[in-house]
Write a structure and sequence with these properties.
This protein is α+β, with helices and mostly antiparallel strands and about 200 residues long. Helices cover about 40% and strands about 15% of the residues.
Length: about 200
């Protein structure tokens, strides 16, 4: 587990000292730690959401990728409660296992959609802006808009991108996508207030 594992262990010991009357809470934290560190992935997944452990500045990156075989759009009105439960579980884990986390950051084309923005605290939504850095095209932060919730290519989006290929600037290929990837961030505490 290395340095991070040692920090988590010390965190657990401190938690146990301050919550010694609640064996259930201590066992629950142990189970979460075991599940977290026994995973082969550095990201922890909660339904459609996952996160990257905080970097050295304490920034947690969040991600959204619906699992395969969805029966309806994961951002439809009837599935909002599900998404909020996933976020609540994810941020409960972050609060338990990531004590040095300070800020939540997201980069995605989804921040253009009200159906997505309604899941987050007002401070996170208010901070949405165009990124001041190059967008990588190796994930779903831009490419995700090409697929529908069934993971099928959207013909209208495909046609728009193909029609823009002759205008593409080599140093900024993300500009040909209909919805630009946007970025946002806010203090982690805002998520705790919103969800927990």
């Amino acid at each position: 587990m290395g340095v991070e594992g040692e920090k988590a262990w010390n965190n657990l010991l401190n938690f146990a000292d301050t919550n010694s009357s609640s064996l259930v809470a201590i066992v629950d934290k142990c189970v979460h730690l075991h599940a977290f560190y026994s995973s082969n992935s550095s990201n922890s997944a909660f339904g459609c959401f996952s996160y990257e452990p905080p970097n050295v500045e304490g920034v947690v990156r969040i991600h959204f990728l619906p699992p395969l075989n969805q029966q309806s759009s994961p951002l439809s009105q009837e599935r909002i409660a599900e998404r909020r439960c996933e976020l609540k579980a994810m941020f409960a884990e972050i609060s338990l296992l990531q004590p040095h986390a300070k800020v939540v950051r997201g980069v995605s084309w989804l921040y253009n959609l009200n159906a997505y923005k309604r899941l987050f605290p007002a401070a996170f939504v208010t901070a949405i802006e165009e990124p001041r850095f190059p967008i990588h095209l190796n994930g779903t932060s831009t490419w995700g808009q090409v697929l529908d919730w069934r993971q099928r290519v959207k013909p209208d989006i495909e046609a728009k991108i193909v029609s823009e290929l002759p205008n593409m600037r080599e140093q900024a290929p993300w500009e040909i996508f209909p919805l630009k990837a946007l970025t946002t961030y806010c203090e982690l505490e805002k998520f705790y207030e919103h969800l927990l």
